[in-house]
Amino acid sequence: MKQIVISSLEETNELAQKIASLLQGDGLLCLSGDLGAGKTTFTKALGKALGIDDVITSPTFNILKIYEGDIPLYHIDAYRLEGLSQDLGFEEVFDETGVKVVEWYDYIADILPKERLEINIALDKDNRVFQIQAIGKKYEDMEEVL
């Protein structure tokens, strides 16, 4: 597991840019952290790094938002899905080419692909601590260079 301490929005943007470049247009990022920890802020920075001009907002009430850019971004917020067992069609999204970001991923962990990059964002005074866990060969290689 890699731990990165972020103290500014500029550093968040830099981390998002680095991760976006390592994904090479396709990947799954699973975000966790308390409300207000910075999951959507990180996703906004990632979207910008992927060439998305649209304003990225939390999809809490929509559950899924798709943004078109140089690389598509599928943004899922599973916060309201805790305990639901119905088929929501996310498996098809995970099969699409593009970057998939799932906030509150632990609520839908049973349908997630096995390979992914899990990122927990924790608040520590004025900093945010990104704990990055690679699951699967593709992501293990990424974690080594972050």
Q: Your description of this structure?
A:
The chain is an alpha/beta fold and about 150 residues long. It has one domain (about 1-145): 3-Layer(aba) Sandwich (Rossmann fold), CATH 3.40.50.300. The chain has helices spanning about 10-25, 40-50, 90-95, 135-145; strands spanning about 1-5, 25-30, 65, 75, 100-105, 115-125, 125-135. Helix 1 (about 10-25) packs across helix 2. The model has no long low-confidence stretch (mean pLDDT about 90).
Order of helices and strands: EHEHEEHEEEH
Average per-residue pLDDT, rounded, comes to 90
Strand adjacency order, main sheet: 1-7-6-2-5-4-3
CATH architecture: 3-Layer(aba) Sandwich
CATH homologous superfamily label: P-loop containing nucleotide triphosphate hydrolases
Globally, the shape reads globular
Largest sheet: 7 strands, mixed
Give the assembly state of these chains. single chain
- The N- and C-terminal alpha carbons lie at a distance of 11 Å
Structural class: alpha/beta
Number of domains: 1
The count of β-strands is: 7
List keywords for this structure.
146 residues, alpha/beta, Rossmann fold, seven-stranded mixed beta sheet, 4 helices
